[in-house]
Amino acid sequence: AADKIRLIPQDFFAELCEQIIQHLNHKIPGINTAELCQRIQTSGVDINIDDLAKVANTLSFLFSTAARNNLSTEELVTSLGSGVSTLPKHALQVIRHVWNEQGKAIAVSEDAGTTATVGQFVDMKWKLGVAMSSDTCRSLKYPYVTVTLTVADPSGQITDKSFEMTIPQFKNFFRQFKEMASVLETV
């Protein structure tokens, strides 16, 4: 990950670190690595989304481990600077600053390992469409609903999941949501 960190400009690296700290503090549901990667690439840096996701996972592990072990800023920076593949100077400066400013606020709970294994729902979008025809069928006139769910996985990576449903499937989906809503009202 140290090699990939060298590629990321300091301002983008600082933004990534801030987002990770906010995610660990449960202030945001996750890190939108796709959007950040696109902005980094637009600035002229050749990095792909998988490499950026690996860097984000590494930093998330680093910050959560440091919080669990209650490390001071100096202890964290010293341990990072003495590793086999040392981080670049700009990265150490950013980590020092972010950890010094916001690191102590990371809430470390006893059951942290069990609560973050599923992911988190962020947003849902839907649209109604009609398939008019295809190359094998002249007249379909087939209505469908396309649903896009935005989900933050346990590591904080935000992804979109899309699927299509027929109208009867959508009615069943809607009925299940109404059941969930009524159960939640009783809680």
Number of domains: 2
Number of helices: 8
Largest sheet: 3 strands, antiparallel
Ends apart, CA distance between termini: 45 Å
Coarse structural class: alpha+beta
Query: How many beta-strand elements?
Result: 3
Rg over CA atoms, rounded to whole Å, is 22 Å
* Form type: elongated
Strand order of the largest sheet: 1-2-3
Supply database-style keywords.
single chain; 187 residues; alpha+beta; Nuclear Transport Factor 2, Chain: A; 2 domains; three-stranded antiparallel beta sheet; 8 helices; 52% helix; 17% strand
Describe the structure in your own words:
The termini are far apart. The model is unreliable at 109-116 (pLDDT under 50). By secondary structure, the protein is an alpha+beta fold. Strands 1-2-3 form a 3-stranded antiparallel sheet. Helix content is 52%, strand content 17%.
Task: Provide a concise account of the structure shown.
This is COMM domain-containing protein 6. The chain is α+β, with helices and mostly antiparallel strands and 187 residues long.
